[in-house]
Amino acid sequence: MSVQSAAADVDVDLRQLFASLARNWLRIGLVVLLATGLAFAFASLATRHYKAETQVEIAPRESIYTRPASNNNDTDKPILDEQGVATQVQIISSNEILKQVSQKLGLEKLPEFNEALDMSALSRALVLVGLKSDPMEIPTEERVLKKMHEKLNVYGVEKTRIIAVEFSSEDPKLAAAIPDAIAAAYIAGQGAAKLESNSAAADFLAPEIADLQRQVKDAEAKVAAYRAQSDLLMGGNNSVLATQQLSELSSELSKVRANRAAAEATADGVRRALQNGGSLDAVPEVLSSDLIQRLRERQVELRSNIADLSTTLLGNHPRIRALKSQLSDLDAQIRSEAQKIMKGLLMQAETAKARENQLVADVNTLKAASAQAGEQQVDLDALQRDATAKRQQLELYLTNYREAASRQDRNYLPVDARIASKASVPSEAYFPKVGPIVGAAFAASLLIMAIVTLLRELFSGRAMRPASGSRFERIDEVAMPHVAQTPAAKPFVRPEPAVFQEPFIHQELPEPAHEADAEPYAAAMQAMAEAPDVVAMPATAATEQTVVEPEPARSTLGEIDIERAAEKLISSGAARAIFVSPEGDEAAASAILVAREVADAGLRVLLLDLTASGAASRPMLDSGLFPGITNLLASEAQFSDVIHADLYSDCHVIPVGTADPVRAMRAADRLPIIMQSLTTAYDLVVVECGPADAQGIGRLTGDATEVFLSMLEADDEVTQAAVKLIENGYPDLTLVTPLGHEPPGNPVPGRRTAAA
């Protein structure tokens, strides 16, 4: 028989837990009212504090007409960044400014800021016993500054250059006067700082200007003396005279060389023309001569006359011969004149060469002078740069000094800050707020009392109840039921079946309470009593133990053994076999044996274990730690994760699983869908339901479904379960018993035989 866990888990009974709030409402209400009353008394009697705020804008105050010339290019730059504003915040809250405000307003004379002026008797007693420090030991100024820092709040408004000065006080007028005084002291301090800076600048610039004036005068004198000593006369274009002359001679030398080269080339061309007897018409200098042009005209005229006369006269005619003689003379004259031109060009080239030689000598002389002048010019430029730099610095200092002196004389020092908004006298105290304080006290006390009450109820154990998904100890196998035996000394007493809490289909089976139910109940009892395989238990004690063997005969209810049940399922082509075991775990062996029998016949069989203890699946898997139907219903696993192979047959099995049964029970409506999917994949799905009723197995049935009632002994419990199933729509109920079943003679190698 199965062994249940000795200790069951517990859950929190939320209804019982929150019902404790209603049971303790009086205590909760009294505590809440007391806390609310105390908060109201505190808010009503507490000293009123008022708060006022002054805003200071950090912005340039310099006019465009008075801005110094050196700052004209900085108009678009922000005067302060985020760090600059934070620096000004620290300056405003500094002790120096607070001291000025304290002295101006006489805060040391007020008990609010000087605790030593008005000490209560309780405070004096605490000081005497050493539980409180004596304020007289601290200087008055330090006490006042400490109180001012406690009541002062200076901060920069985000993404602006506005600084807010916030102050709280028991006097509303003082709360407005102090931040205004702090802002005024800050602006006055900034003005004083600018005045001090301006005066320091003027005092610094005055002697510096005097020194610079002497230095500039000395530097310029050095420049003039060096120029006179070095004879560095300046020509045009601000250059030394030697350098300028060298440039001019170089240009003239280039021209002379070009003219010489042109004359030589022309003379050479005329010479070649005369030597080779070529035409002189290609030489421009020859054609440009007036005499040659006239000779050419006369030559043309003679050739024209010879041509005219040749039409009427022969070539030996005296006139033609005379004209030809004149033409020859003209050619000789032209060549003679060309030779003269050539000689002139040669003379011109000689003259240009002589001029070129002279210019080269002059250029060389000027080169040496220019090099020396360049070296001297470097020294002179250095002296000039020094004098120029000092003069520029002097002019800058003079400009700044004039600006500083003019601002100092006219007392014009604009501060880059102004009071954007003055503090107004507050009419309403910011502390205490009666409504929020009382409301917060009410809500907090109510919440605390509710939490305390719930924790007391939880820790007392009154809000705990047994968990619905109790776990069972691991069992290796389910022992097959044996034939009943009667002891010799006393009548046989069958052990009571274990009580199960099946989360999916279990329902309690009540006894028949009406006469209408008594008749079928009695008929079922009579039919089962007549069955030959039912064990007859003697009413009196026996001297020897008697073993009653079951017979294969069947009663009118149709009890069959494992083999007959398997044959019935195979022959009928059933797709589902629902097993109900009112006697508990031992009777669940019928479903296991039938499933294995059908699987050995070659059909694809799956056993679905819906018992609370896993009595149908653990003998097939040797463990209860596999994921199963509860994991599938709780969406923690898929079909491939929950289907496992039987260790002793070809049957597949889906165990109970390891998920929370309560969570899985919420998805019990998915069982019909799961059953439909399994019947599609397998030839037969065997479901062990445990001690279920007709209503519980209703969601598991479908087309081609056979319902079996597994029994060990024909007692009232089995009879009652059979009657209920028949009355509730299952007239074809079949009783099956595992008693007398023997496992196959040749089990599969590597597997054990069915549990015995």
UniProtKB/TrEMBL annotation:
Keyword Transferase: no
Protein's name according to its UniProt entry: Exopolysaccharide transport family protein
Domain of life of the source: Bacteria
Annotated GO CC locations: plasma membrane
Domain called Polysaccharide chain length determinant N-terminal: residue spans: 11-105
Transmembrane regions: 25-46
Coiled coil segments of this chain: 209-266, 292-340, 366-400
Subcellular location: Cell membrane
Gene3D superfamilies the UniProt entry points to: P-loop containing nucleotide triphosphate hydrolases
PANTHER family named in the record: FERRIC ENTEROBACTIN TRANSPORT PROTEIN FEPE, TYROSINE-PROTEIN KINASE
A Pfam entry, by short name: Wzz
InterPro entries: Bact_polysacc_biosynth/exp, EPS_ExoP-like, LPS_length_determ_N, P-loop_NTPase
Major location category of this protein: membrane
SUPFAM superfamilies associated with the record: P-loop containing nucleoside triphosphate hydrolases
A GO molecular-function descriptor: protein tyrosine kinase activity
UniProt entry keywords in alphabetical sequence: Cell membrane, Coiled coil, Membrane, Transmembrane, Transmembrane helix
Topology with respect to the bilayer: Multi-pass membrane protein
